[in-house]
Design a protein that fits this description.
The structure holds two protein chains of two kinds. By secondary structure, chain A is α+β, with helices and mostly antiparallel strands. Chain A has helices at 6-15, 25-35, 38-50, 73-106, 124-157, 195-198, 290-312, 317-336, 372-378, 394-405, 418-424; strands at 165-172, 175-180, 185-189, 216-219, 224-230, 235-239, 244-248, 254-258, 264-270, 282-288. Chain B is globular, with a radius of gyration of 23 Å. Classes of the chains: A alpha+beta, B mainly alpha. Chains A and B meet through helix 4, helix 5, strand 7 and strand 9 of A and helix 4, helix 8, helix 9, helix 10 and helix 11 of B.
């Protein structure tokens, strides 16, 4: 393991821990204070050395007391507050338990101590000594911590002032849908780590469990308002580098904001227990400069037009099978498993399934209720099977249905055209 | 003459198993409660060992995520409702009548009923878990112990319904126990035992009982609403039909936050008594502690939403819950100050109960201080639902609750059994527990700061080292608890005879009785000066 030498690596980390804090006055002061506190720095080094075993990746050059690198004003504020407050409580702990330790070593029966009989403060001096810690505590609570905390909350909750663009995040078990309402772009982002890696049949990649097929792309230097909601249970959108963790609640819109200061790839994941796939619901955000972002938007729009055009075209069965297989292995496999065998008691099998092997359109070309196509498009309420027409394109729905009808020992030989799906929406 | 013989007959319990099934004696029920808590402590512990084994390395090795979710959910439910609360109830059953000079609890039959609900509740909770191995159903609930998230989802299966009925049973048991405490303490004190002379443990339990009476019905009600939502077509929490999923969080946490103090208060009551006994000094700041306990009881009902600060509350509510939560630090620090005052300038010796009491103070201090920064909404956005929280609440529940119960167990064990326990092994148990407890939960704090969410069966590679250390710590912590079994069994069966006084400077009416105390005590109330 790469544990050795972590203690040494902690040293440069502590020195560049508070590089440049943002325009917030209070934070500036605390930041410069940190640089002038050799004692605290030494304490940190010492604690760092004690916990050197815990530093899993010295190359990250970050103290273990820090969050992941903050790149938004809110993340910087909250990390500075966290580090400050941790110092304060460590200070309180050390002082209080130094007194305990003194008493434990000094007032022992074995060293001949005579027990006192007092049951409360006796003299005026003792009363003052008794009251003082509480006044100090109230000062620490409501002034030292309370005031910066209030400013940080006010800033965090101010999602609307000068917001330059809006995106909408819709969570469902166990993926994220990102929508740019102004650009008319919408896509689904789900985990890209293979089942082989998760089950130890392949080596784990660098970004194991923190990689997705379609990352969210955001411009740097712009205040982006994020609207959150969910289609099933409560999820929580958490990117540590942004200092944003906000629940996505079904039936409600929640808000957060980011203003990313530095281009890069930022990773997070769902933070609210949301069922079996909770650990496999990563978030990846690519932050790029404005021109690149414009370029990406243009590309995405063109691709959207291509998808619409693709729905018009007549697809061959081989094309649909190939595309369907790719989608199945990315999305459906998590529940229905690689061989379509499902998980008994939890997720139904597709191999030999009555629904998959049954008809899906009636004579007039309408959807048969609870038929195969209906199930894929409209889902089954109350289960993990959701309405995929909301997240899949016409081609994707057609491909997956065709694939499932002709795989895992199902040999129906029929197929669905994207144009049919389009008409049935 | 015949009357006298009948009286003597009544005085003796029936032999064998019938004694334990039919007993209404507070000491017998206390032993039953404590034994139940003790057994559940090991079942809940075994569940979390499996969880930590899965987390030893990244990747899914042992458990499917659905099984993983069930295990940590059951771990929490069992530890809170099956281990700590019944053990604390056992202590109150055994000790409150002795401490206030009463012959028994006021409602002995209710007492018997309250206990015998518990094993059935445990069976009900665990039945779906074991049935799944025989291909029946989809297992126990995996929605977390506060079950406010995926519980509406019918996927969560019948296990959730079993958990709901378990909560109803636990509610009845806790309420009957709590009412019994209130009635006993307010009506059955010996002459001269005024309220302000009661031992702090009795005070703490009286307050806990009031908290149970106020909070437990809310939990039962929320569970019932959940049940009707799931099966009878109501839509309290179902957003698709105009319900409010956040309402469920409010209801559960309105119970859940007082619950934290329900677990802690009994320990807060007994710690100063133990510190005083081994410092050979009276308790410092008795009145201040009583008022502080009441203040905490009151405040604990006003801060529930600090458990849901990322759920998108309005700004004003966030600010209120932040400042209100900080206020709890003031009565809590009164307690810490009084503990310090109690040992200050004493003549301390460090027997096992004293070690656990001091360990309680040191660990609970860490849990309390980290709790001071959690309510800051902006910082909470990073801490919430991460391993920071897991670490924090284990410092309060294990470092506080369990260490407190261990201190109590060692302190009164000679009183219960009539034998002294093996002091050397007791101290060894303390040191092993302390070292491995910290080895388990300190790395979790740093994994959380680094961004590791909780409730996940698998994790990214950056958290690997911390999880490895934490898992190894957890296994060793689990193993070292087996030592406790050995110590307790050995102490029950044999050991040097304990005197009535047990400890050199132990105070209280229970230490005026022989060890173990006779089956019936204080039939004629003692007079307290």
């Amino acid at each position: 393991m790469e544990l050795a030498g972590a203690a040494i690596h902690d040293e440069p980390a502590t020195q560049e821990r508070h590089p440049k804090l943002p325009c917030c006055g209070i934070r500036h002061e605390t930041a410069s204070l940190h640089e002038e506190r050799p004692l605290i720095k030494r304490l940190q080094l010492w604690l760092g050395a004690v916990f050197f075993l815990f530093a899993s990746d010295p190359a990250r050059a970050k103290s273990i007391w820090d969050f992941q690198e903050p790149v938004t004003p809110v993340a910087r504020d909250s990390m500075a507050a966290s580090v400050d407050f941790l110092h304060i409580i460590m200070g309180i702990y050390v002082v209080v338990f130094a007194i305990f330790a003194y008493s434990i070593f000094k007032h022992r029966k074995s060293s001949g101590a005579q027990p006192g009989t007092f049951t409360g403060p006796g003299s005026r001096r003792q009363w003052v000594l008794t009251i003082l810690p509480f006044l100090l505590l109230i000062y620490i609570d409501y002034i030292m911590m309370g005031i910066p905390a209030f400013h940080a909350i006010a800033k965090m909750e101010d999602t609307r002032t000068a917001a330059e663009m809006t995106i909408k995040v819709t969570a469902s078990q166990w993926k994220w849908q990102y929508e740019y309402p102004e650009e008319n772009i919408r896509f689904v982002s789900s985990i890209a780590t293979s089942q082989d890696q998760i089950h130890g049949r392949a080596a784990k990649g660098e970004h194991y469990l923190q990689e997705v097929d379609h990352p969210l792309v955001l411009p740097t230097g712009k205040k982006v308002r994020i609207l959150l909601t969910s289609t099933d249970v409560i999820h929580s959108w958490w990117v540590p580098s942004f200092g944003v963790k906000r629940d996505a609640v079904p039936g409600y819109l929640r808000e957060a904001w980011v203003k990313i200061e530095k281009p890069g790839t930022y990773r997070g994941q769902c933070a609210q227990l949301c069922g079996d796939g909770h650990a496999f619901m990563p978030i990846v955000v690519e932050a790029v400069e404005e021109p690149q972002f414009r370029e990406w938007v243009a590309q995405k729009k063109a691709a959207g037009t291509a998808v619409a055009a693709a729905a018009e075209k007549v697809w061959s069965r081989e094309e649909l099978m190939a595309k369907g297989g790719e989608i199945y292995n990315r999305i459906c496999i998590a529940c229905h498993q690689a061989g379509g065998e499902g998980v008994p008691g939890a997720f139904p099998a597709l191999a030999g399934s009555k629904i998959v092997n049954g008809p899906f359109l009636d004579k007039e070309g309408r959807l048969i209720k609870d038929g195969h196509l209906d199930r894929v498009m409209n889902g089954k309420p109350g289960t993990a099977m959701q309405a995929f027409k909301n997240t899949f394109s016409d081609v994707e729905v057609a491909a997956i249905v065709t694939y499932e009808r002709n795989s895992f020992g199902n040999h129906l030989g029929d197929m669905v055209q994207p144009s049919q799906v389009k008409a049935l929406r | 003459m015949t009357e006298a013989i009948a009286a003597v007959k009544r005085d003796r319990p029936p032999a064998g198993i019938m004694r334990w099934l039919t007993t209404t004696n507070h000491k017998d029920l206390g032993i039953l409660y404590m034994s139940f808590g003790f057994i559940m402590f090991f079942i809940g512990g075994a569940f979390i060992m499996a969880v930590r084994a899965e987390l030893l390395f990244p990747g899914l090795q042992l458990l499917a995520p659905a099984m993983y979710n069930q295990l940590f959910t059951l771990h929490a439910l069992i530890m809170v409702f099956g281990a700590i609360m019944p053990f604390a109830t056992g202590l109150n059953n055994y000790l409150i009548p002795l401490m206030i000079g009463a012959p028994d609890m006021a409602l002995p039959r209710v007492n018997n009923w309250g206990f015998w609900i518990l094993p059935f509740a445990a069976v009900l909770l665990l039945t779906p878990f074991f049935l799944q191995f025989f291909g029946v159903g989809s297992g126990a609930t995996g929605a977390g112990w506060v079950m406010h998230n995926t519980s509406l989802d019918l996927q969560s299966g019948a296990g959730m319904d079993f958990a709901i009925f378990t909560i109803h049973l636990l509610g009845i048991s806790s309420l009957s126990g709590a009412i019994n405490v209130v009635v006993t303490v307010l009506n059955m004190r010996a002459p001269g035992m005024t309220l302000m002379k009661m031992p702090l443990f009795v005070w703490a339990w009286l307050i806990t009982a009031f908290m149970l009476i106020l909070a437990m019905p809310v939990f039962s009600a929320a569970a019932t609403m959940l049940l009707t939502d799931r099966h009878f077509g109501t839509h309290f929490f179902d957003a698709a039909n105009g319900g409010d999923p956040i309402l469920l969080q409010h209801l559960i946490w309105f119970f859940g936050h007082p619950e934290v103090y329900i677990v802690l208060l009994p320990a807060w009551g007994l710690i100063p008594q133990i510190l005083a006994a081994f410092s050979r000094k009276p308790v410092y700041g008795y009145r201040a502690q009583v008022y502080a306990l009441w203040a905490i009881c009151f405040l604990s009902f006003l801060v529930w939403a600090h458990h849901m600060l990322t759920s998108g509350l309005p700004l004003a509510a966030e600010v209120y819950f932040m400042y209100a939560t900080m206020a709890i630090s003031i009565p809590t620090s009164v307690l810490v100050f009084c503990w310090l005052g109690t040992i200050w300038r004493g003549a301390m010796t460090f027997e096992t109960p004293m070690l656990f009491a001091l360990g309680f103070v040191a660990h609970f201090g860490m849990g309390a201080l980290t709790g001071l920064i959690l309510p800051d909404v902006a910082v909470n956005a990073q801490y919430h639902n991460s391993y920071v929280i897991v670490s924090h609440f284990h410092y309060t529940f294990f470092g506080g609750g369990i260490f407190g119960m261990m201190a109590a167990a060692y302190y009164w064990l000679p009183k219960f059994t009539g034998h002294m326990f093996d002091e050397k092994l007791g101290r060894l148990h303390f040191w092993l527990t302390t070292i491995f407890f910290n080895m388990t939960f300190i790395p979790q704090w740093f994994a959380g700061l680094d961004g590791m969410p909780r409730h996940t069966a698998d994790y990214a590679l950056r958290f690997a080292a911390m999880n490895f250390i934490s898992s190894v710590g957890a296994f060793l912590l689990g193993l070292s608890q087996l030592l406790l079994v050995y110590i307790v069994v050995k102490c029950v069966r044999s050991g040097p005879k304990a005197t009535g006084q047990v400890w050199e400077d132990a105070q209280g009416l229970e230490f005026t009785l022989p060890s173990p105390p006779p089956y019936h005590t204080f039939e004629t109330p003692p007079v307290v000066k």
